[in-house]
Design a protein that fits this description.
Elements lengths: L1 H12 L1 H15 L2 H23 L5 H43 L2 E3 L5 E4 L3 H26 L9 H32 L1
Antiparallel strand pairs: 1-2
Helix pairs in contact: 2-4, 2-5, 3-4, 4-5, 4-6, 5-6
């Protein structure tokens, strides 16, 4: 029974990755016109925030101009963020379930635990595995978009999504090092 519970917990730990994949699939299933309208809401929100920051409203012409300028970058940034989160959603449970393998303890001559060193090779394997999983899903998402009204698949978009996953993973590892450094200073 305990093995079954452990297996269920392992599967559930990957649930965030599955939910993100479903969310990405649903966004990609929206026809181009609907997808553009949804991202247009975010564009308008960003422009209104900029108006508040600068303390002056855009003219109608300026608003239209800037909306066109930032629309594509905002869409691409959203994609990069989705895939950064997806890579994390693969990486975190992998590390969580394999943490005993990741932190082997050397045993001293007296039989007591010695140095604890992180298995860097294994961490890199999991890092690149999570990154590869996110990029492979990005590729399947682009293929999916070939069958959606007004949408197209693009190798460039796979690269953009992959860059988002890579940057997300780098940010995650940097954050992890900072946290470990802070914890190390407290002991």
């Amino acid at each position: 029974m305990q093995n079954k519970n452990k297996h269920t917990a392992w599967l559930l730990s990957y649930l965030p990755a599955l939910l993100l994949m479903i969310m990405i699939f649903l966004f990609s299933a929206a026809p181009a016109e609907e997808s553009s309208a949804e991202s247009g809401i975010i564009v308008r929100l960003v422009l209104h925030v900029l108006e508040n920051v600068r303390g002056k409203a855009f003219t109608g012409e300026e608003f239209t101009y800037w909306a066109e300028v930032i629309h594509t970058p905002i869409r691409k940034l959203a994609h990069m963020t989705e895939y950064a989160l997806l890579a994390w959603a693969f990486f975190v449970p992998t590390v969580m379930w394999g943490r005993k393998q990741l932190l082997p303890v050397s045993v001293g001559a007296d039989g007591m635990p010695g140095n604890v060193r992180m298995n860097g090779k294994l961490l890199k394997k999991w890092y690149f595995g999570s990154l590869l999983a996110a990029v492979c899903y990005a590729a399947t998402d682009e293929i999916h978009q070939l069958f959606v009204e007004g949408r197209s698949g693009s190798a460039v978009d796979v690269l953009i999504d992959g860059a988002g996953a890579a940057l997300g993973m780098l940010f995650f590892l940097l954050l992890w090092k900072i946290i470990r450094g802070i914890k190390g200073k407290k002991t």
